[in-house]
Design a protein that fits this description.
The chain is an alpha+beta fold and 391 residues long. It is 40% helix and 22% strand. A hairpin with a 4-residue loop joins strand 10 and strand 11. It is globular, with a radius of gyration of 21 Å. The structure holds alpha-D-galactopyranose (GLA). The site of alpha-D-galactopyranose has 10 residues, from helix 5. Alpha-D-galactopyranose (GLA) binds next to helix 5.
């Protein structure tokens, strides 16, 4: 990667490389912007950025994935407007850094990513966080400030009203462990997965256009639910504050589909907490059941699944060694996450690939989800793992 950088930008100066991972979420979907609980793992799939000072007043960014290069005088960054282009992510981050008082030094950046774009594995947060580190190029930043600043870039510049999960896990991910994030206190704790389980993400290879408008609709529907529930329980400031019992007491006062949206969020927060307990006690079967219950709730109450995701979940559930499966991420395509016995991984991958091909005429990529370290500078590039199993 450093060689590719030098070939493109010339040989002077020290080239440093930063990495930020994608994620898969085990449980707790569409709860983050409701200030509830999520339980993601950082992946080995990651975005890597090589950088060195440009020395000519310009910020120059090249993406290998898009094979495109753009450049701006650093003095103009504060005035840039969104361009509906992939560079909105790095530029949004640069603008947030400026706003937080960090100077943007003239630099060249080369971006290489193994997080498949549009897969629901959070390629955007990986790009945001790696860009922030590359632009800081060794300057210190508080990790929570880093995650929040990248989330603001996405909300304010890219224009997606997303929660904090993706940027947070990209920063705070840890090797060999999932983390449970409390999206209100913005604190987390490690949750070690029991021995004898493997995690796989299976990519539907589709991304339905409905996704981004539906995401906004869900954010709005949840806000409506909060307003209505607060008439009975004035202390309720977000769906996080509503217990399953309180929800039962007020649900008849909520119109559809707001009622089902709120029911998903309230029951999903409860499932995260039960999942954490089950994981800590090594109760695999219960973990699997909670994953499936989460999927059904996303499918029927939250209505963010799709035929491809449902097919992968339903098919996985009948297969040998599978403990649980559900969609992961925003929905409307992207990936499912499957928890299974390690000895069943190879057979599972081969079989589900064949069945999905038959049904949809698309070859799903399948990624191992070994919990990996959060973002930082890296010194060794031979650690990039294979992208998809068995292909
Ligand atoms: C997307 C958003 C996250 C989260 C998930 C759904 O990935 O970026 O903030 O809301 O959807 O859980």
């Amino acid at each position: 990667m450093i060689q590719a950088f030098r070939e493109r930008f010339g040989a002077q100066g020290e080239v440093r490389v930063y990495r930020a991972p994608g994620r898969t979420n085990l449980i707790g979907e569409h709860t983050d912007y409701n200030l509830g609980f999520v339980m993601p793992v950082a992946l080995q799939l990651a975005t890597f950025i090589a950088t060195a000072p440009s020395g000519d007043g310009m910020l120059r960014i090249y993406s290998e994935g898009f094979d495109e290069q753009r450049e701006w005088p650093v003095t103009k960054i504060a005035e840039l407007e969104p361009a509906k282009h992939w560079t909105d992510y790095p530029i949004g981050v640069a603008k947030q850094l400026l706003r937080a008082g960090y100077e943007i030094a003239p630099a060249n950046l080369l971006i290489r990513s193994t997080v498949p774009e549009g897969s629901g594995l959070s390629s955007s947060a990986a790009l945001e966080v790696s860009t922030a580190l590359a632009l800081l190029n060794g300057r210190a930043i508080d990790p929570l400030e880093l995650a929040l600043l990248c989330q603001r870039a996405e909300r304010e510049y890219v224009g997606v009203p997303s929660g904090i999960m993706d940027q947070y896990i990209s920063v705070f991910g840890r090797e060999n462990t999932a983390i449970e994030i409390d999206c209100r206190s913005l604190k987390h704790r490690d949750v070690r997965l029991p021995k004898g389980v493997a995690l796989l993400a299976t990519n539907t290879m589709v991304k339905h256009a409905l996704g981004s408008s539906a995401y906004r609709d869900r954010v709005r529907e949840c806000a409506t639910a909060v307003e209505l529930i607060a008439k009975t329980y004035p202390q309720v400031a977000s769906l996080r504050d509503v217990s399953p019992e309180q929800f039962e007491a007020v649900e008849n006062k909520l119109p559809e589909p707001v009622r089902r949206r709120a029911r998903h969020v309230v029951t999903e927060d409860d499932r995260v907490n039960r999942f954490v307990e089950a994981a800590e006690a090594g109760r695999l079967e219960e973990m699997g059941q909670l994953m499936v219950a989460s999927h059904r709730s996303l499918q029927r109450d939250y209505e963010v699944s799709c035929a491809e995701l449902d097919f992968l979940v339903d098919t996985a559930l009948g297969m040998e060694g599978v403990i649980g499966a559900r969609m992961t991420g925003g929905g409307f395509g992207g990936c499912t996450v499957t928890m299974l016995r390690p000895e069943s991984v190879a057979g599972f991958a081969e079989k589900i690939r064949g069945l999905y091909e038959q049904q949809f005429n698309l070859t799903p990529q399948i990624y191992p989800c070994k919990p990996s370290e959060g973002a930082g500078e890296i010194h060794q590039m031979d650690a990039i793992p294979p992208v998809s199993i068995g292909q």
